[in-house]
Amino acid sequence: MLLNQPVFRWIHKLMDQFDTPILCIRLGPSTHVIVVSSPDLACEFLKKQDEIFISKPDVMSAYLISDGYLTTAMSPFGEQWRKMKRVINRKMLSSPIHKWLQPKRDEEADKLLWYICKQINKQNPGDLINVRSVSQHFCGNMIRNMIFGTRLFGQGTEDGGPGDEETEHDALIDERIQMWNNGARKGKCDLLDVLINLEYPNLTPEEIKAQIIELMLATIDNPANTIEWTIGEMINEPTILKRAAEELDHVVGRDKLVQELDLSKLNYLKACIKEAFRLHPFTPFVPPHVSIEDTTVGGYFIPKGSHVLLSRFGLGRNPNVWTDPLRFDPDRHLRGERKQVVLTDEELRMLPFSTGKRGCPGMMLGMTMTTMLLARMVQGFTWHAPYTEQRVDLVENHDDLFLAKPLLAIAKPRLPSYMYPKY
Ligand code: HEM
Predict the structure, then answer these.
(1) Domain that includes residue 216, residue range
(2) CA-352 nearest atom, ligand 1
(3) Is the pLDDT assigned to residue 128 strictly greater than 70?
(4) Which residue, by CA, sits nearest to atom 20 of ligand 1?
(5) Ligand 1 center to residue 366 CA distance, Å?
(6) Would 1 be classed as within a structural domain?
């Protein structure tokens, strides 16, 4: 296995060779790794039997990242996972809190336009915008603003991006705890204030720090990777970009910036995002689920302690499920009865957020951020390949599912200049 890098490509090649949607690899005497790439089996694991496949692997890297399994995503099944998942679901990402934090997200959506404009202005018209970097900054700033009430911890860079000091969370958290203890801070303004003041259950400073790092990691790469691929696909298929821009003009107009309330009406735009989730997931697999009992799935005996890898890559590109699976075709999500495009799939033909007890608690926030990022980028700008090229190079990395090179493109404002926020 060590010789067959990257392992995820080797595993999918094996599944193709054996023409199977489920594969078991034995690691050492007792660990069974089970890979799944069909919707029926995914439903068995994540819907019918999700109470059995509810744990996570006990491995050193997860232990260290989560400061000894203090957090949600990395922790094996148990009381600590239950406690932190409840805190996230009920106290951090509930609908009322989501609404409470909307002004911070609105601020970041406006700053996104300003940030792109600033880069266009200081460049020659033919110079390029790094779409990956713009998307990552947007997501990073947004989660920082919601958690810490500030988008940049220090001065940031000259062009409005984050500076080196952005990683210094712990000192900020300690300082804030101190402010609450000595009465210097009284009103709750952000998620950090909420976490510090929780009573049932109470969180230790270590739990707060570890959980915040995990949430920041969970929030940045998924939306940013999705939008980088979507813009790339749109540049190479200008009719898709044109349809998305026309939808924005029709639903929102050109004299108002798209707002969160508009997002549910942008069906074509959502279909583009859903297509990027299907074809270009951020990771090949959902993080492993570990079974806590012996069981049988699809007629196969699965021993307790098995590691199940649900393949986002294998499901999204499964030719038995999707026609012409390698083609970026948003229209495939607009066919059929359903009038509203939703970014998840009931039948688990793709797994953007996974589902069940270990499913993503940040779905509402993740969908809002991803859709707003694309909506503002398409409403505010036209996007083109560099002048010397006809198309952008949409080559996937060999070792992961990122674009091999960050997407560089030309952006031109498409709204009247007074529409772009200035700071
Ligand atoms: C487009 C955005 C996002 C996508 C595509 C996404 C996707 C996922 C996926 C696939 C999982 C694994 C679920 C499983 O193991 O079955 C997950 C877990 C998780 N996500 Fe997200 N996520 C996104 C945004 C967010 C945000 C914004 C947050 C929080 C601020 C978040 C917090 C978490 C947490 C805490 C878990 C672990 C849940 C558990 O193990 O019980 N995610 N996410």
Answers:
(1) 7-419
(2) 5
(3) yes
(4) 360
(5) 8
(6) no
